[in-house]
Write a structure and sequence with these properties.
Largest interface: A-B, 46 and 46 residues
Distance between the termini of chain A: 73 Å
Number of domains of chain A: 2
Order of helices and strands of chain A: HHHHHHHHH
Strand content of chain A: under 5%
Shape of chain A: elongated
CATH superfamily of the largest domain in chain A: Tetracycline Repressor, domain 2
CATH architecture of the largest domain in chain A: Orthogonal Bundle
Oligomer: homotetramer
Radius of gyration of chain A: 21 Å
CATH topology of the largest domain in chain A: Tetracycline Repressor, domain 2
CATH class of the largest domain in chain A: Mainly Alpha
Number of helices of chain A: 9
Number of strands of chain A: 0
Chain lengths: 219, 219, 219, 219
DNA sequence: AATGAATGAGTATTCATTCAT
DNA sequence: AATGAATGAATACTCATTCAT
């Protein structure tokens, strides 16, 4: 019996990645079997090995490619931003939007680090560190300029990332809120959380400028 | 040949829970084998079944007992709090402290819901909903009184819980910061995030009173 | 927790035999677990070993005691019978009646011989041979006297025993037929089968019994 | 490392069925382990699952296929038979012959019904019922025509089947008797048992009336 | 690039049996 | 005479992976 259904040639790899993403997202890496994955793709499990080298490598590549893409796009989103508040807002908007669009990749990259073999783990942690560093630097810059009020930059970095990343746990397209509303809600929480009003100016500016729009903002 | 080494009677169950907690925390439920667990406890894997009925039941009981305890202690922590800001601060302090003390239970209860069989899953989700509801009610109350500024209560609830729960991902006892500092950092982020200064008064009151201390607070 | 329900002292052994009989009858020896058996009796499985030495020994004793009893009662039932036809009728009546009353013992003694260890197997096969021999001798005697028509005594012995024993597979107390009717139906089949009419006289006797219609019928 | 020794492709399934048949016949379904079976076939036990889906399914298919074949061949053997006595003789001859040739399938189909899961059990019992019905109908027809003397058709059906099937318990090819002799011995027992002489004529008339049609039928 | 059949190690769970209490 | 907790081997079945075709 020759192949019945399932994809041919170059499309198969894409089907594997897509199905793998979904299965790992739903069941976890350890709980996903390659038989399941193959069935989803419409091939026999042995045939997977024409496209991947091991289960571990599949996970690693999914995660690595995701983080690389994340970094690439983040840097693009931050381009041209000067003030820390603008950078932070851009970071939040980018992060939330990206997470809504790619929640599976994002979730896996956060939850399956422990499933990576040591060498792969280190590679990924380094990449993830680069991403965290972007946020930490924005916070540090804002604090240095007196724009942000933050008790501890490290804690704030982790906390903000947690806050933002958490939405992969509940977001579903077509829910009660538009993507814009969700972005706005998170912007508000994060910017307020570091002592900025949503409009972008520091609630308390280091240079004590009782600027009018602040009063305006306060209503 | 009866028991040679290993634990005895009622202590074994406690050892199983403890080791199970650690192994699930570290490797995940699916990736933890009962052989590993038994080895950790110092008994044969078959002997586990003198204490548990299935692997699934062990997970379920760990999670259920944890959430029950969490709820019980939360309610105690909130006792006597009147104003929403006080309640929120108490919530944050309790949550962060509890999570530092019981990070494994907390982490598992959040990450292994998908490993629960449907019936168990429903039970746990209901319990977890009760916990989330406590926070949602505090936020709703604060918003109603004009004490909090929140774009969307539902989103804020999830976001705040994510933010707070995230620390199980990086907290290690004996780290750079004291528990108190960590609590304080989170209080600041959350209270500011909903538009409250750390001292507890609303930054902007709903009844537009350009009260002097607000200016003062802004320094 | 001390014993809750279940039998005490000398009654426990009887409960074990009874429950064992039923479980082996229903599921087979290999498929019956001692945990099941213990549960049925209302004790822990370890406690069984206060009464039995091994699972195998339990089977052996059930079977052995049954066959001994069967032999004892058969010999009583055959006492005083002189003519082969009377003996055969008595054998059938006894066998069928006994099998209806003790169908579990009977069934097990026939179906679980293969579960006996070699030594036990030999013991039982010897006993069973003694029982079969009773029937074979009756048949041989009847043939010798010209009372029975039988193609092969050995085959007839096995076939008749099969025929009679088969009712353990379908008999249920309180069914459509009375025990007497069932006995009668089997008497008819067996006696006719060896060429005797139900009234007990040989259809064709070696000593030419001058009954006219019998002669007529016989050829 | 791929297959080293052991069977290949489509032959493996046949080897599994054959070995399974023998092992279940000898030890019983519950007592046969898949390791044993795999060893017999010359593959690893996990490799069995390339051919069967579960142990239970293997049993079910062996039994189902056997009964289907049995029915098919029975119907062929009965073709062209008109008179009940001829049908009964053909039934006995077929049944005994088939049982000698396929004693393992036959034995299993009778002794392992209890090992079938409810759904499978029902399927098989229905098929087996169809076989029993063939015999019951022959007996009923013979009784209706006055050709057979039978106390109770239902009991006679079971008893005759028991009698005939019993030979799986002792028959061994190359024994003392030829197959033909064994068939003849059973024909005699059964036909006499229902009141027919081996030649095919009714032995008796209850009311000793040499009624013409009975005489006619009798030769 | 796919199949189907294999491997060998591993899975959760059950087993008969033992024995200190 | 019972318990409860242990053993060590076994159970059916699954796993990732390999490879001749």
């Amino acid at each position: 019996m020759a192949r019945t259904i399932g994809s041919h040639g170059p499309k198969t790899m894409e089907a594997i990645r897509k199905a793998g993403l979904r299965l790992i997202f739903e069941h976890g890496y350890a709980a996903m079997s390659l038989r399941q994955l193959a069935a989803e793709v419409g091939i026999q499990s042995g045939s997977l090995y024409n496209h991947i080298s091991t289960k571990q490598e599949l996970l690693f590549e999914l995660v690595r490619d995701h983080i690389n893409e994340l970094l690439r796009q983040l840097d693009r989103a931050l381009q041209g931003m000067e003030r820390p508040a603008d950078k932070l807002r851009a970071f939040v908007a980018f992060h939330v939007t990206y997470h809504m669009n790619r929640k599976r990749e994002v979730f896996i990259a956060n939850s399956e680090l422990r499933s990576l073999e040591p060498k792969n783990y280190e590679t990924i942690v380094a990449l993830r560190g680069a991403y965290e560093k972007r946020l930490a630097e924005i916070l540090a810059e804002g604090v240095a300029e007196g724009a942000f009020e933050v008790v501890d930059i490290q804690v704030a970095t982790f906390a903000i990332l947690s806050l933002l990343t958490g939405l992969t746990g509940w977001y579903r397209p077509g829910g009660r809120l538009t993507k814009e509303a969700i972005v706005a809600a998170h912007e508000k929480l994060v910017l307020s959380g570091v002592g900025i009003d949503s409009a972008g100016s520091a609630r308390r500016s280091a240079k004590p400028a009782p600027s009018p729009h602040r009063t305006a903002r306060a209503k």
